[in-house]
Amino acid sequence: YRAFHRASLDDSQAKREEQELTALLWELRADQQPAREFVASLRNGVVDHLLAAELALADQKEQLDRMTAALAEGGALASLDITSLGGRDGSPDHLNLLTLHSAKGCEYDVVIMVRLDLGNLPWRNETPEKLRESRRLFYVGLTRARDEVHMLYSGFVDGRYGPMRFGRSPFLDELEARMRAAGI
If we measure between CA atoms, which residue out of 87, 66, 88, 72 comes closest to residue 36? Predict the structure, then answer.
């Protein structure tokens, strides 16, 4: 949210709007609320304003319009509630894809972490503070697995002029060293 307004808001205004968004999301969190009501409230409270102000978000607006239509009465997804929309209902018939940022508090039988390459996680040349945050996110993803975790890397990242070889994430090396030291 803050990224949408980075150029136009001062820090105090951005913080206030971020707090308002958090309060709105907290208010709308009821698990069995129909998804269409949640999306409508979110659009009315925040999203439509952002989409109208940022012409670069036209593709996202089009996708959101399609989702809103599918969630409407009589739409293909009209029966979804918040839990189902968020993929938190544990259905064995679908795969949950989520970012490391949204994984906190979730737990899955199997977790597959992808793009664990230097240049993706962590980014190259991160500040010490950002490196600590990237490491924390790595461990958040790792600890979401109840039974299995699979970690994938290619050693390459997409650069401006094509693929660049940086190798795997140093977090994998750290994890491997810790496991070896623990006799695992």
Answer: 72
